[in-house]
Design a protein that fits this description.
The protein is mainly alpha-helical. About 65% of the residues lie in helices and about 5% in strands. It is globular and about 75 Å long.
């Protein structure tokens, strides 16, 4: 074993080893620690550093702990993982942005959900394969690091920061109107100054801020407690959406679907691009790889099961909503489902129950997506890409407390001050880019590492990942110029942060060229490991 470890002793001052099944043989590789960032090794040139990949075996060995070696708690089974996925997904496009998306697509909004769901499903099967191969917290950031190198991993990780943090804010923004719908039953209402962000007639969206901060506090207390609370809320959320469909279908009017495409195919495509961020839930599940009891088996199952549940309910609710009200009615309506229930039943208590359930549904999304954001930053911190504070795990709670508080406060400020429309589109473009990279990662590993043990395999390979990549590119192209400008500015900021911090603190880049070659060669070659161990 000492032969395998010796190639890294020059730069790894505090090293452990772990066995990892790679392909058909057990590979023993070092566990990288923070001392890997020592300056004793000359860093490679920028071009070479951007292409450096992190071996999958090394990622798995490092998984489960943060700065200082404090472990995360492995407490999630397939039920909790599925509920994290459903909790992060179900409700976003229906409860929050129907007023934004129906005016784009008209009665064909259900087709937009099908298109977005198909694009998400094509990527979801790629996520399922990669989650079984790389069961760590970094999600697509880690997948990109293992296949395309540090440069693309940073771009993907920076997109995930946009995707997760902004999507939490986008969902929380919609809480203000549902809180008002709840209070209206008692003859009360929050003034716009307290329930709307600047630009929408208010000063700060207080309900959005409160929901994010409550989710932050719950996550700080512990992942297991958060998961069980989320599971209970998801059950309530599914129940209120099924209840809405039952009521809405009593007022169903088939004439509301004529004409089906008043804005043409372009409107359907534009709406699909907008609602695509409603499908990021399975990505949140993949960030739980280090807290799952059996991630190789349960992560793929949870991802696929959640996609079936979410897409079915989205389409059903969209059809019920448009069947109950003409598509023009939705323009500018923020709490469309509550209003449909109230107008259909003429019973205020029904609207009260649904509005209260909708607030819980929004809280569930905020909780699970905020969870995913903190785990991605933990993984990036472990690699030296972001400051170490995001990787510190509390010995008492087994959670990254400091990182959760920092992210929670930043997201709360964003949710309180930024309008919904800008947040939803910015989230979509970051999500689509990350999904496209995961599809490419599957193709890369199928070509270069066919020996790896896969607990789930993408069907119809290579057609499925190729179509997934093209579908993501198509939806990105349908987003507006303003969204692309925001995305470009975000990438410029990310580039500056990488050059100023990530490049100098990268732990993979801290390895000398010879050490890096030895590590990657031995991790990829069962024959060399057998020779060293003999």
């Amino acid at each position: 074993m000492h032969k395998v470890e010796s190639c890294l002793t020059a730069v790894l001052l505090d090293t452990g080893t772990t066995n990892y099944l790679e392909g058909t043989s057990t590979v023993t590789v070092p566990v990288t620690t923070k001392e890997q960032t020592t300056e004793s090794a000359a860093r490679p040139r920028l071009g070479a550093q951007l292409l450096r990949r992190k071996p999958i075996a090394q990622m798995v060995n490092e998984a489960g702990s943060g700065e200082g070696g404090t472990p995360l708690v492995r407490s999630f089974g397939v039920l909790q993982l599925t509920m994290i996925s459903v909790g992060a997904t179900l409700g976003t496009g229906i409860l929050v942005i129907l007023g934004e998306s129906v005016p784009l697509a008209g009665p064909a909004i259900w087709i937009s959900f099908v298109i977005a769901g198909l694009a998400a499903l094509l990527s979801a099967v790629s996520y399922a394969e990669m989650a079984g191969l790389v069961p760590v917290a970094g999600s697509s950031y880690s997948y990109a690091y293992a296949t395309m190198g540090e440069g693309m991993a940073w771009i993907c990780g920076w997109c995930l920061v946009l995707e997760y943090a902004v999507s939490v804010a986008a969902v929380a923004v919609g809480a203000g109107q549902y809180v008002n719908e709840t209070l209206a039953v008692f003859g009360q209402v929050l003034p716009d100054a307290m329930s709307q962000p600047p630009g929408d007639g208010g000063l700060v969206n207080i309900p959005a801020v409160v929901i994010v901060l409550l989710a932050m506090v719950l996550l700080v207390r512990g992942a297991r407690e958060s998961a069980w609370i989320n599971t209970a809320i998801v059950v309530i959320k599914v129940g209120i959406l099924v209840f809405f469909c039952a009521v809405a279908f009593t007022a169903f009017n088939a004439g509301n679907f004529e004409p089906l495409l008043p804005m043409g195919a372009a409107g359907v495509s534009a709406a699909a691009s907008t609602v695509f961020f409603s499908y990021i839930g399975f990505d949140a599940a993949s960030t739980a790889g280090e807290e799952a009891r059996n991630p190789k088996r349960d992560l793929p199952r949870a991802i696929m099961l959640s996609m079936v549940i979410v897409t079915s309910i989205y389409v059903l609710v969209a059809v019920a909503a448009v069947g109950a009200r003409p598509w023009g009615w939705f323009d500018g309506t923020e709490a469309a489902l509550v209003q449909i229930l109230e107008e259909t039943t003429q019973q205020p208590w029904i609207a009260l129950v649904f509005a209260a359930g909708a607030v819980l549904a929004i809280a569930s999304i905020v909780l699970t997506v905020l969870y995913g954001q903190t785990r991605i930053l933990l993984s990036m911190s472990r690699d030296g890409m972001v400051p170490r504070i995001f990787g510190r795990v509390s010995r008492r709670t087994g959670t990254p407390v400091a990182g959760t508080i920092i992210v929670g406060i930043a997201v709360a400020i964003t949710a309180g001050l930024v309008p919904l429309g800008a947040l939803a589109d910015a989230t979509s473009i970051g999500t689509l880019f990350a999904f496209a990279l995961v599809n490419v990662a599957v193709i890369y590993l199928r070509q270069n590492r066919p020996d790896l043990e896969r607990t789930f395999r993408v069907p119809l390979y290579p057609l499925t990942p190729v179509l997934g990549t093209l579908m993501c590119a198509f939806l990105m192209a349908n987003l507006g110029a303003d969204t692309w400008i925001v995305f470009g500015a975000w990438m410029l900021v990310g580039t500056a942060i990488y050059l100023g911090y990530g490049r100098r603190n990268s732990r993979v880049a801290a390895l000398s060229e010879q050490d890096y070659r030895d590590l990657t060669t031995r991790a990829a070659s069962p024959e060399l490991v057998k020779a060293d161990l003999s």
